[in-house]
UniProtKB/TrEMBL annotation:
It comes from Streptomyces vinaceus. InterPro entries: FAD/NAD-bd_sf, FAD/NAD-binding_dom, NDH-2. Residues 457-472 have a biased composition (Pro residues). One of its GO terms (molecular function) is NADH dehydrogenase activity. Pfam families: Pyr_redox_2 (PF07992). Residues 19-349 form the FAD/NAD(P)-binding domain. Keywords: FAD, Flavoprotein, NAD, Oxidoreductase. Residues 451-472 are annotated as: Disordered. This is NAD(P)/FAD-dependent oxidoreductase. It comes from the Bacteria. The keyword Flavoprotein applies.
Amino acid sequence: MVKAANSRGEAPGTPPRTRILVVGGGYVGLYTALRLQRKLRAGEAEVTVVSAEPYMTYQPFLPEAAAGSISPRHVVVPLRRVLGTCRIVIGEAQRIDHAKRTATVATLATEDEGTGPLEIEYDELVLAPGSVSRTLPVPGLADYAIGFKTVEEAIGLRNHVIEQMDIASSTRDHALRDAALTFVFVGGGYAGVEALGELEDMARYAARYYHNIKPEDMKWVLVEASDHILPEVGPELGVYTVRELRRRNIDVRLETRLDSCENRIAVLSDGARFPTRTVVWTAGVKPHPVLAASDLPRTERGRLVCTAFLTVDGVEHAWAAGDAAAVPDITAEEPGRECAPNAQHAVRQAKVLADNLVASLRGEPLTEYAHKYVGSVASLGLHKGVALLYGRKLKAYPAWLMHRAYHLSRVPTFNRKMRVLAEWTLSGLFKREIVSLGSLEHPRAEFELAAGHGHKFPPPPPAPNPPKDSQG
């Protein structure tokens, strides 16, 4: 185990600066650190941010990135550029020992160093690691499915869909063609419905450039275990969404589960079988594993037990918000209700958390987090969507426009807002890009072939034997 170097460097006789450790570079991690660096006085504290990636991903834009409406670079916010006065450590937090005020972090250099993970000491802890995909023991899921939580998965899925269309266009095997043009999405929440809606819309557009593929040749299936989809927008808009998807020839199967996807065959609980080369798993999330590797109190579902002040209940100098935190909703009519783990709460909680942390350092009173749920917006493809805002229901184009306006206002930094707005403007003036860049996932493949480690083309047939000389 290697201890992080003491970066305080105070002159003799000066009080030591408070060491604040922020675990996570998502919504809460970024916004908390951003607000801390704005509100802390010079020399008052030093902030260290531990993140598995050097950027924050604005996940509501992942479906549009997958559909090609937004460049992947513009749905992420580089931490080092935005958090200029913070220390950024790219690595995975493996364990939190709050009693000793230490966090164990495996960095990118840990394996090469051979000296074990990094141990970072702190005085104040902000736990915001977010969540990870919640999977079930479905046979074949780990071998063939793909998630939809990261920008890499979104772009990989876009490349994969276009590649399947290329396979279907060139194959002479009817079974292979049908499997390549069958796309199964599991999970009827935001991620599943928006990803399906945007990619189906993109594939429908791309089909016009294939001489032997029509939109009706493709089969899109949405599998949801409950009896409704998009519960956040209410039952009426949920029913409308099902009707809208089915009008687009999308097979929506409610109260149905994925039982298996072994051998590239999706087997559903209602007995249906779909040979497919694409299974997208968006059936929920669970708290990050680092919470279980800490000595902090957790709920039955694995989230941290928090107060309305965004402190960890019963623990000093520990704070949490977002997906990792079970924060009581003091605006709810029913007692004991918790804030939903979504971006709307996470962004607002981060600001209150940072303000309370600064207030605690200065001996000032803390403020409770109180935010009444505004509503939800969801995109179903280009010019299509649903929205429930302040009790008002919107559908189709107005909802899609509200979806874009709301998320444009929420994406961090003015730089990113302008880049996204510019791309939307250009995409309205020019045609969609339908290029698959699947080779990005294996950038050394071409060089390995050139170096003699493989054969891209079959060997030429042997030359015919020359005719024998009749004389000899």
